[in-house]
User: What shape does this take?
Amino acid sequence: MNSFFKKKDSSSKEEMIAQIEKQISVSLFVQAAAQITEAILLSRLYALRDETEGESEIITGVWVQSIGQTIEALAVSKELSTFNQQELRELQKIIVSSDFLQSIGAAIEGAGGIKVLKETPESFIP
Assistant: This one.
């Protein structure tokens, strides 16, 4: 497969890279939309069920992940149209920070899930 790419001239290789980067950007927005949808639906579900402390933490974690995912999608999109090296570096820092934010949200969600398991012996929807 590498030989295929080596045979391509550098301009077509750059075009392929740009196309893949755009596809990645679009996929990040799709993920963000799905994450936000999950947060909204979980919020509605747990509100109808009189949410417990653990469920509240799950919702908080999912919302934190949604914020991180949205920030990442916006920063990656902006990164693709930026030629200024200083701005590019700042956007990369934002992207890394948004990854950490998503991780923190997942940790909060997991901690909430553990509380829910302890609160109710019956099954739950994470």
The chain has a mean pLDDT of 90. The chain has one domain: 12-119. The first helix runs from residue 2 to 7. The CA atoms of residues 79 and 90 lie 9 Å apart.
